């Protein structure tokens, strides 16, 4: 019996688990997911310092148009040891340099007039102006990056600021990709009548990379037991095996049979969705096995809705499902089935909100419509026809 879309996705996610962690260097952290809370090993800033190029002064001396004697200079990277701001004096200071003793305000250089060793203040000065105090950004022991955070440039900058050369992140799953079928040939091969170029391996590999996993393209296995067995055995050594084609009811659709022979426990076959209905899912130990339809559009949509959330969960992401938004229908959207239907649409932002229009022919053999689409409209079985002006749930893709 076919599973509903939600039932199938729940089974997949129940069997998908976050992988173990590994230490990765700073330059390779982009997009990775932190495995544990990272706490600040020290204060940031580490000392009181100047926010501006200017002068370190005593607030008590800083009446408007006060003229002060410049007695010293503290460049960035220097120390303020032995330097004191005394009454009636100022110390020239650069951004980031430590605050000298006696200083309780910084006057930006643009708010002064400098002549020789005298500086005149032409703006009012407030107590503690332009001083960055020790720990004012982050205090020692504070959690700076919680576990499961996706590392962006900002987080990586912070880790580098705390001199964390190696950081524990969730390991990226290795995803084996296997295309099956006697009709398939690799891109660049001579194409005879009746043969089809294997495109699924490449679209699936890119989709795998986009979620932070590592694709392992196994190539093509033609419809014979020995070749399929060999490729399947290799694929089952990965964290995830994705097969393309060979799971419908045809006489030569051998994939499910050979997966069972290899010890894969099938948890479902066929889902009440279109496209992607013949999808099967199973496990062998900790290895997840997805058997997707061979039709390119079906394969891409089944990956997006079923495989992608599992991979995101495995890499430690919290945002494993695409955001669903509502858009106003332009034209007509039709679900002629009793299934959950994923229609390829073009969604545009207008002054009245999001508007969704069919991207073209919804036949699953038409790849051009997938290229034109930037979203999927999701029609549940009860939604047979949505007319212009009605609302539809959409998810942006790609």
Summarize the structure in words.
The protein is α/β, with parallel strands linked by helices and 398 residues long. It contains seven helices and 28 strands. The protein has a six-stranded mixed β-sheet, with no helix packed on it. Helix 1 packs across helix 6 and helix 3 runs parallel beside helix 6.
- What oligomeric state do these chains adopt? single chain
| Main structural class | alpha/beta
Total number of helical segments?
7
Q: Give the DSSP E fraction (strand runs of 2 or more residues).
A: 25-35%
Q: What is the CA-atom radius of gyration, in angstroms?
A: 31 Å
Strand order of the largest sheet: 7-4-6-5-9-8
Using the 3D structure, state the CATH architecture of the largest domain. 3-Layer(aba) Sandwich
Helix content: 10-25%
Q: What is the CATH topology of the largest domain?
A: Molybdenum Cofactor Biosythetic Enzyme, Chain A
Please give the alpha-carbon distance between the first and last residues: 32 Å
Shape: elongated
Biggest sheet overview: 6 strands, mixed
Mean pLDDT, all residues: 94
Number of domains: 4
CATH top level class name of the largest domain: Alpha Beta
- Extract low-pLDDT stretches: none
